[in-house]
Specification:
Elements lengths: L1 E2 L5 H9 L3 H7 L1 E5 L1 H9 L4 E6 H4 L1 H7 L8 E6 L13 E5 L5 H13 L4 E4 L9 H7 L7 E4 L2 H10 L3 E11 L9 E5 L8 H4 L4 E4 L14 H13 L1
Parallel strand pairs: 1-3, 5-6, 5-9, 6-7, 8-9, 8-10
Antiparallel strand pairs: 2-4, 3-4
Helix pairs in contact: 6-7, 6-10
Length: about 240
């Protein structure tokens, strides 16, 4: 890890380039901001490549590299990690995200997986990128403790079913989650913000769940996927 006391225009250009996915992919790096997030990164197994402090590089330089409206006192460049799906998935509760596109939702769900003790989050390859700056901020540091594996969700479901394990999914025509017996060794699928769980994945689900509305009058069509995830994981852990 290097700590910069002075910053050149080339340094600024390099850090700013990491706002774009193509450069994050090219360099295999991402940026975190804020004292808490940088400390989480430095205390984790991730490789922290560079650290930039406002008191050392100056407020003007920090404002140029920061993505925040009010630049944080510290910013770090961190090397990405990429996880592969294990051939044998240990017993436990897992999340599968089927085309979750919103960065805030993705980050919040990673944070929820940390809170509820879900070791691994699986995400479809068309889900939002884990190292998107908005995803990172929304994880509130959980990104450094949880594994997020990008893979085929239908194929993942098949692995669970073939092993005799439950695959749950949330639907508008499912069984009431509050009265359903829930297995703790299982995969829980959460769907896309607009379209829910895809047909290809839905065909692999063994148990369809419903989070019922208790409103007596008109209500929202559905819950935000991150909110639905929180409710669902809470029931599995109850």
């Amino acid at each position: 890890m290097s700590i910069f006391a002075e910053m050149t225009n080339a340094d600024i250009k390099y850090i700013r380039s990491l706002r774009e996915k193509k450069f994050r992919d090219e360099y295999g790096l991402f940026v975190v901001e804020g004292e808490k997030m940088v400390k989480e990164a430095m205390d984790s197994s991730f490789d922290v490549v560079d650290v930039f402090r406002k008191e050392e590089i100056g407020e003007e330089a920090m404002s140029r590299i920061s993505t925040m409206s009010s630049p944080s006192p510290v910013l770090a460049v961190v090397r990405q990690k990429h996880w592969e799906m294990d051939r044998d998935i240990p017993e436990g509760l897992y999340l599968g995200l089927d085309s979750v596109r919103d960065p805030g939702n993705m980050g919040t769900i990673v944070r929820l997986s940390d809170w509820f003790g879900v070791d691994t989050v699986f995400a479809s390859e068309d889900s939002v990128e884990l190292y998107n700056p908005k995803v990172i901020q929304a994880t509130m540091g959980a990104i450094f403790r949880k594994k997020v594996v990008y893979c085929s969700i239908p194929r993942l479901c098949e692995c669970f079913v073939n092993a005799g394990r439950k695959v749950y999914g949330t639907f508008l025509d499912g069984e009431n989650i509050y009265s359903k017996h829930l297995e703790k060794d299982a995969l829980v699928i959460m769907g896309n913000e607009s379209n829910g769980i895809s047909k290809a994945t839905a065909e692999k689900v063994t148990d369809r769940l419903l989070i019922p509305s208790f409103a007596k009058g008109p209500t929202a069509e559905s819950l935000n996927v991150a909110v639905a995830t929180a409710i669902t994981l809470s029931e599995f852990r109850r």
